[in-house]
Amino acid sequence: MNILTDLLKLSPLTIFKTFFLLIEFFYICFALVIFRQQKLMVQTIEGPEAPFFRLLTLVHFFASLVVFGLSFILLMF
Amino acid sequence: MPDLFTAPKNNKKLLKRPFGLFSTILEKPKRIHFHGQHSNEIILLLLRRHWVTNLSWLILGFLLIIAPPLVIPFFDISNLIFTAVPSGFFITVILFWYLGTSGFLILNFLFWYYNVGIITNERIIDVDFIHLLYNEITETTISKIEDITNKRAGFLGIFYDYGNVFLQTAGTEANIEFMAIPKPSLVVEIVSKLMEQTHR
């Protein structure tokens, strides 16, 4: 893969790209924590808006996956 | 069961729900329940921080939204990075920027929405989600409350009528604090009435 050979060459742009992808990966974990926390919040206070908040955090989580996937394709190939 | 709390007639307008979802003070909300609620327990008041306290993160969120359209033309004109960095990289950076902004706004809204104070006919509960990995739920029965005070300070606090309410409990029970809630004097009045009725 190009990025691995570039990494071996230690190209500054490749290192930056890898670092960026790593941040995006951590963001996926963060989005997952938000989703999980929202579920805990709903268990504590049950309101009529709970399904909307669940959908919102779920969409945010899936958006983070999509952005990571898209970044991976755009940056690696 | 006797009705422990009835809102005074002159408070009806004060406790009116202004926006439903964005209400900061709700009187006897019918569709809201909390974990551990007893079968005959009624929520008398549900309190959230005043909406003015959200202005800081709302303004920051707005700035984060408008920042890319303002900053990108600057780079385009000066042509500083575009020659060295592939265009795909900018697309990913912008997508990630807006993803992060949406996460920031969602998280702050959830913290505001779920950090509540609950006054029921039996007890008082303070639900605090401090940050993503830490939450604190404090509760006490009305009979254990010894002292109640409210503090309203600052220009915004006076102007928009919001402040902090401190409930001191007996013995080793944890004290309860409702921070930046609207109409703190009204909350004190209601809790005092509940205390009187319970101690009778």
Oligomerization: heterodimer
- The outline of chain A comes out as elongated
Low-confidence stretches of chain A: none
Q: What is the terminal-to-terminal distance of chain B? A: 16 Å
List segments of chain B where confidence is low: pLDDT < 50 over at least 5 consecutive residues.
none
Task: Name the beta content range of chain B.
Answer: 25-35%
How helix-rich are the residues of chain B, as a percent range? 25-40%
What's the main sheet of chain B like? 5 strands, antiparallel
Please count the beta strands of chain A (DSSP E, at least 2 residues each). 1
* Class from secondary-structure proportions of chain A: mainly alpha
**Overall spatial form of chain B:** elongated
For this entry, give a set of tags.
heterodimer, A: 77 residues, mainly alpha, B: 200 residues, alpha+beta, three-stranded antiparallel β-sheet
Question: Explain this structure to me?
Answer:
- The complex is a heterodimer of chains A (about 80) and B (about 200).
- Chain A has helices at about 1-10, 10-45, 50-75; one strand at about 45.
- Chain A has about 80 residues and is mainly α.
- In chain A, helix 2 packs antiparallel against helix 3 (about 50-75).
- Chain A is elongated, with a radius of gyration of 17 Å.
- Chain A starts with a helix and ends with a helix.
- The mean pLDDT of chain A is about 85.
- Chain B is α+β, with helices and mostly antiparallel strands.
- Chain B has helices at about 55-80, 85-115, 155-160, 185-200; strands at about 25, 35, 45, 115-120, 125-130, 135-140, 145-150, 160-170, 175-180.
- In chain B, the strands form two sheets. Chain B has a five-stranded antiparallel sheet with strand order 1-3-4-5-6, with no helix packed on it. In chain B, strands 7-8-9 form a three-stranded antiparallel sheet.
- In chain B, helix 1 (about 55-80) packs antiparallel against helix 2.
- The longest helix of chain B is centred in the middle third of the chain and has 28 residues, at about 85-115.
- Classes of the chains: A mainly alpha (about 80), B alpha+beta (about 200).
- The interface of A and B includes residues 27, 33, 48, 57 and 70 of A.
- Strand 1 of chain A pairs antiparallel with strand 2 (about 35) of chain B.
